[in-house]
Amino acid sequence: MNESRKRARTGNDKAGAPAAEAPALPKLAGDAAATKIAELQAELEAIKQSHEAVVDKLNAKVDALRAKNESQLREIKDLTSALQWAYAVEEIPRRHWLEQGRSEEYADAMGNLLNSMKQNIETLRLGGNCETITIDFSLQDEDENYIRADHDELLMPYWKELAAALRHWSEYHADGKYLKVEIFYIELPKSVLDTLHPAFEESSIETVFFENSRHSGDMANFAKKVLQSNHFITEVGFGVNKFAREDVKTVCAAIKARNAGDHFIKSLGLENCFEGGIDTHTLKMILMTAYAGNAEVVELRLNYNGMSSRESAVIAEFLSSNPSLSYLNLNDNDF
């Protein structure tokens, strides 16, 4: 009994003996310790920066996807709106024009105009081939003179949708391309110009031309606002818009302001735009506007303006000292 207890006690004593100590880590002293700490801190900082770079890259991808998604949602919303307009817009019945005392030919021409506007709107919305957008009322009288379409309030939804389509194309389909927009023989009162001008100010348009739109003062103010805001536009023209001298002054001032910077107007057309012909003072103002600034190439079209030998002397003097005018159209004047 005592012997067994002695053996048990002896075993317990061995179990309770202190464990062997772990080998001590080598101690770094002085400069060696500081160097090691610095190396570890640099390694930690590198890992941190690498992590931040990965996070930033992922955040950038998330932002890009979110922006793309928002852009697609806006485009879908715009297209949905366009489809709703296409289905909801009330067709202007042919009898509407006949009840106004218009001829059968006028009613037919208005039908063609509206179909053309809808086709242009669809092309712009869907990003089709649309280098040139032409809105043209095409009708001639017995003497083969073109007739201008009068404004009608029932046309306003078409003008509004055209403006929206121009902005839509510019935002989603332009891809570095620019439009030529021309409107022929349709009355454009201030209400229509006010509807169009935000789109003309913001859209990817390079060339604009308006022929026989009436309301010359409103057109001059429209041109001023558009040219001041939209520096994509480099070619501007008017035909059969009877401008007063103050109207020309307004347009010329806008072009001079553009040419004073780096966004030149390279082409200006004023064709058959002066009742009774162009006077010498107005002609000089136009010529000096074409020359103003640093544009290397300038085109000027002044055909059908009733100019005679008196104006030819002014033009000759101007040309002798202004070589930047590369093209001058004086056809169908009275020289």
TrEMBL record:
Low complexity composition-biased segments: 14-26
Coiled coil start-end: 30-82
Organism (species): Thalassiosira oceanica
Annotated region described as Disordered, given as residue ranges: 1-26
Name of the protein described by the UniProt record: Uncharacterized protein
Biological classification of the source: Eukaryota, Sar, Stramenopiles, Ochrophyta, Bacillariophyta
Keywords: Coiled coil
InterPro entries xrefs: LRR_dom_sf
Top-rank taxon, per record: Eukaryota
